[in-house]
Design brief:
Elements: H1 8-14, E1 21-26, H2 31-46, E2 52-57, H3 62-67, E3 75-80, E4 83-89, H4 94-104, H5 108-115, H6 118-127, H7 132-144, H8 151-155, H9 162-173, H10 179-189, H11 193-206, H12 211-225, H13 230-243
Parallel strand pairs: 1-2
Antiparallel strand pairs: 1-3, 3-4
Helix pairs in contact: 2-4, 5-6, 6-7, 9-12, 10-11, 11-12, 11-13, 12-13
Length: 244
């Protein structure tokens, strides 16, 4: 479908929350654009609705070209969940286009993880035992259900991951009899992130022996929130001050 500045928000951003959308920025005078078009159209059609193709004429929609910093065409951007998640510039061979679309379209494991219930997450692990995302998602579910004692065995194979490392530290803290630690973990279990971080930070200041596990637990929370979340920004600074 052809997309304009007036329809981009609905046809691309909002639509990508339901199905991945590939946006092909092109122009009529661009020879490589004309070469790329049938290749990407064929690859999208083969996926039978699992991905949508949108085309943006940069001459008719200069503000979109500016917004997405289009400096050379063809310029192809993949959107998923309302955000641009992948891109490529210039003419590409069919194999590269297929690889691009494979990264954009959720796999069976991705869909099971997105479902988020215990049965789906266990199916995801059966299909891909090395999936960090599935193990971390299941660990968070176990904490929420008061089954934190099952987390260590689940996460130890992927302890190199920052989120997994944080949850493992949280599991180790569960046996600690200290008021701020207990209050912080209880708040995390209830989804009360700001009070949880406040208590854990107080414990960092007051219980030096637990600093490593408290630090990793808080870093794991930051990883879940995202680097730009206001709580991450605020408490990361406070944690650094408490530690150093």
């Amino acid at each position: 479908m052809d997309v304009t500045e007036a329809t981009f928000e609905i046809d691309v951003i909002e639509r990508s929350r339901e199905v991945p959308v590939v946006v092909d920025f092109w122009a009529a005078w661009c020879g490589p654009c004309r070469q790329l078009a049938p290749l990407i159209e064929t690859a999208v059609e083969r996926r039978e609705g699992a991905v949508v193709l949108a085309k943006v004429d940069i001459d008719s929609n200069p503000r979109l070209a500016q917004t997405y910093r289009v400096q050379s065409i063809p310029f192809v951007v993949g959107f998923r969940g309302g955000e641009a998640v992948d891109q490529f510039v210039g003419m590409q061979p069919p194999a590269a286009i297929e690889s691009f679309l494979d990264r954009l379209v959720p796999s069976e494991v991705d869909l099971l993880i997105a479902a988020g219930d215990e049965s789906s997450l266990l199916q995801a692990l059966d299909a891909d035992p090395g999936s960090v995302d599935a193990r971390v998602a299941l660990a968070r579910l176990l904490f929420a259900e008061g089954r934190g004692d099952e987390v260590a065995a689940l996460l130890e194979p992927v302890a190199y991951d920052k989120a997994a490392e944080g949850l493992l530290a949280r599991a180790r803290l569960a046996s600690v009899d200290q008021p701020d630690v207990a209050a912080g973990l209880a708040a995390l279990d209830r989804g009360l992130v700001e009070p949880a971080l406040t208590h854990l930070l107080d414990a960092v200041r007051g219980v030096p022996a637990l600093r490593d596990d408290l630090r990793e637990t808080m870093l794991g929370v930051f990883a879940e929130l995202g680097d730009q979340h206001p709580l991450t920004v605020r408490f990361r600074r406070r944690l650094a001050q408490a530690l150093y």
